[in-house]
Amino acid sequence: MDFVCLDVETANADFASICQIGIAKYRNGAVVDEYVEFVNPDDYFDEMNVYIHGITERTVKNSKRFNQLVGDVLDFIGDDFCFTHTGFDRVSVNRACLKYQLPETDVEWRDSSMVARRTWDDFKYKGYGLDNVCSFLGYEFKHHDALEDAKAAGHVIMSALEKYPGGFDELIERLGKPLSPHVYEKVAREGNQEGIFYGQSLVFTGALTIVRREAADYASQLGFSVKSSVSKKTDILVVGDQDIEKLAGHSKSSKHRKADELNRNGAGIKIIKESDFVALHKSEEL
Q: What is the arithmetic mean of pLDDT over 23-28?
């Protein structure tokens, strides 16, 4: 589980005007080294940027320029995956390289905002800014300090890893997939007429530990007709174990909330955990 998280602050609207760089290095889930430097941007400081991060021309007066310290930055990153929260910081580094006529960095960039978007439904399409995600996770930090922001991104990664049984490798693999992989998989199935639940309808929701098409195959073997959405005709809703334990309200998936609403009106939809569903399938294989 070797990775680093990087953040930069800029002097003005130009992405290349880096005035601070912060990097946190992680080994086995803990910060083992830190790198932070103010940078002379060779550019002016916009009052709005100063208002945000508090860095001024006086702050960086005796600091090195980007081209004088980029070698140290790349040495610190090494061969690790380098996470930034959104692409701003990655683009800033490469724009600064261009500014000083340096080759673009050969770094294995990854995005912690995309980790958040793929891990927690609350941030899938909005609200995945670093401050908002860390507030959700209960992590306090000094926003717009490059090292503090880098470590905050690291906290997002470490918190997300708790949701991936396969660890860091599974997380990296998940980043290469769409936000909602199951949307692109045909999970609808007709039920096996010999199955003990033939005639009943089933829907999946939440993050499952098994591939959704495989789960749909299991349900079909049991006789369930697998559907993609919840309705009053739904008999069973299978919820990922990590999701069923969440508090009532917005933390539940939309399908889960709809099933609750229909049940309040007498629908009788049975809501079960994924692990119980898998156990049910295994019992029928015996």
A: 96
For residues 97 and 233, membership in a common domain is answered with no
Are 160 and 228 found together in one domain?
no
Question: Which token pair is 153?
Answer: 């991104």
Q: Tell me, yes or no, whether 135 and 252 share the same domain.
A: no
Same domain, 168 and 261: no
Exposed e or buried b for every residue in 82-93, given b needs 16+ CB within 10 A? bbbbeeebbebb
Residues 35 and 121 in one domain: yes
Report the half-sphere exposure of 76 (CA within 13 A, side-chain side): 21
pLDDT tens per residue across span 77-91: 999 999 999 999 999
Residue-wise pLDDT tens digits, 46-68: 999 999 999 999 999 999 999 99
**What is the C-alpha to C-alpha distance for residues 121 and 240, in angstroms, rounded to an integer?**
13
If asked whether residues 146 and 218 sit together in one domain, one would say no
Cα 32 to Cα 24, 91, 191, distances in angstroms? 8, 26, 53
